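User: Here's a chain of 246 residues. Predict its fold as tokens.
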Amino acid sequence: MFKACIVIPVYNHGEAMAKTLSEIQAYDLPCFIVNDASDAHCSQMLGKFNKQYDWITLKVHDKNKGKGGAVKTGLIAAFEAGFSHAIQVDADGQHNLNDIPNFLTQSQNKPDSLIIGSPLYDDSVPKHREYARYLTHVWVWINTLSFDIKDSMCGYRVYPLKQTVTLIHSVYLGNRMDFDVEVLVKSHWAHTSITSLATKVLYPEDGISHFQPLRDNILITCMHTRLFFGMLKRLPQILLGKFNGR
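Assistant: Prediction complete.
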């Protein structure tokens, strides 16, 4: 049975969350919010939202684990609560939440597929981020030996929970900004189909980014290196799978 919910990792996005929650309320979907050890102000706001909306389940990290760690907590909680699919939405207002029905329709049509957003940017996107994303895409195409993953860094996606939670428990997946990319590559290696869906992405002028250039670029570089050698190890299997039409 198809049973979907929303998962939102939050770290000091209290003000933005008010707008996000007001927009998703219309879709009548249970929502798992993971407070990744936010400051007192944000934590207070999330606690208020949790009391205000009966469709919210709030999970709290005592120590900051990073975006990936928060997403994993939310996905596991959703699966254990009996949901079959979870829409991951960022808390900072970048995602066009009007596309939620489109993501749900795609997921219902392809319930075993991981549905990923393929961003359509406007002029608000910083050019240096756009170029850096493309470099990551190239490495992903190399590490999967395919173009199945159109955009590996967009956090707007629908996870089939059984496959994804099994993957979380069975392999290493990064806990910070490296998670979004690594979970896609390793899902692809596990033969989970990937479906892309075009969606508009905005960079709000007052948006808060928690990307730390030195730390996160080192993590992403280590991830690409780890995935590359993982790809070499799996190369015979990947080529055999392509030969067999997988």
